Amino acid sequence: MEASKTSHRHFVIFKPYGYLSQFTSNDSKQQSKKFLGSLADFPVGIMAIGRLDEKSEGLLLLTTDGKMSAHINSQKVEKEYYAQVDGAISWEAIQKLKTGVKISVEGTTYNTKPCKAFELEAIPELPNRGKKIRDNRHGPTSWVSITLKEGKFRQVRKMTSAVGFPTLRLVRVRVGDIHINNMQAGDVVEVLELGLGRVKS
Questions:
Q1: Fewer CB within 10 Å, N side or C side of the chain?
Q2: Which residues are catalytic?
Q3: CA 40 to CA 190: how far, in whole Å?
Q4: Closest Cα to residue 168, out of 152, 176, 156, 153?
Q5: What is the pTM of this model?
Q6: At the top level of CATH, which class does the domain 10-74+178-200 belong to?
């Protein structure tokens, strides 16, 4: 029996700091940039499910299945981020993040939807970042968890800035039921299936 022509391949990766969420570029201005294609030999038709900007890190799902990509990018699947912010974040700021804040999206004011947000009690165990974060001689920092079902461009960074605590480091740690666990920056794991946020490896 011939293999199904509709079979797809899926990957879970830890996008390192300084990488673009694309595989190659024909833009001459981007030739000095780092791309996901250098992390592994990915199949033709692979796409990132959502994006992390160049300075953001963490969990990124890849697939050749456009329908799966559209589902996970929909406002049905949670995406959780750990953000290290500048300053000792206040209870009031956390409440504003939870209820929604005004940010700019493509030049238009946008009200973010209610989300889950809380301050982490301890510094999360994450791989060292490729570029060092400023140290505490420049003032305290805090870590917060923010869980969204939407994903506007640079949304978490804009949200923390809107409440007075700019983001210094941003790591996506979960998409649906898929968690980054003990993955290290640059890790690539191929899985059999991504379904409703679940992984079968």
A1: N
A2: 53
A3: 10
A4: 156
A5: 0.89
A6: alpha beta
